[in-house]
Amino acid sequence: MYPGFFHWWKEAQRHASEHHGAHASCGPAACGPGGRRQRHRGPDDHEAAGEDGGGFGVRRPLRFMAWKLELDENQVDKLAAILADLKTERAQAAVDHQRSVGTFADVLSPETFDKDAARAAANARVVTAERLRDAVVKALEKTHALLTPDQRKQLAYLLRSGQLTI
Q1: Distance between CA atoms of residues 104 and 25, nearest Å
Q2: Do 35 and 71 have their domain in common?
Q3: Distance (Å, whole) CA 22 – CA 157
Q4: Which of 10, 36, 59, 156 is the 20 to 30 Å CA partner of 99?
């Protein structure tokens, strides 16, 4: 069991005994400072608040874009496919990055430095960056074709203002 869990569990037990079990079913997250009851949050609430663990998720940007751009169902379906492809490409880029870090570590371990292996790992990073660049351009092109002129203007504003990133 993870050692950090013990503190959480003990706090849950303490809160449950202090409040005579009134909040025992929700755990310590349901009780705020001083034992005040907070609204129980579901999994979608964590995702909407940006607490999904990082990375580029599809559901949150899709919901945000559908709301801000007032997309119809057909547009939402097509945009979901575009974002899913982009998410997959970014995940592959992260895997390639970790692989190159491992190669760099392997090059540093021996007595002699293998310049060719280090160069190959660095070149692999360049290829990955180019592939990711092409995927972003392709996603932008498909999104441009999907949106109306007003929706494109709104999306451009969201990008410039930092409310949405690509």
Answers
A1: 49
A2: no
A3: 47
A4: 59
Question: Checking phi first, is residue 2 left (phi over 0); if not, alpha (psi -120 to 50) or beta?
Answer: beta
CB atoms within 10 A of CB 6: 10
166 belongs to a structural domain: no
Domain span including residue 105:
59-161
Is residue 65 located within the same domain as residue 137? yes
- The CATH number of residue 75's host domain is 1.20.120
| pLDDT score recorded for residue 157 | 94
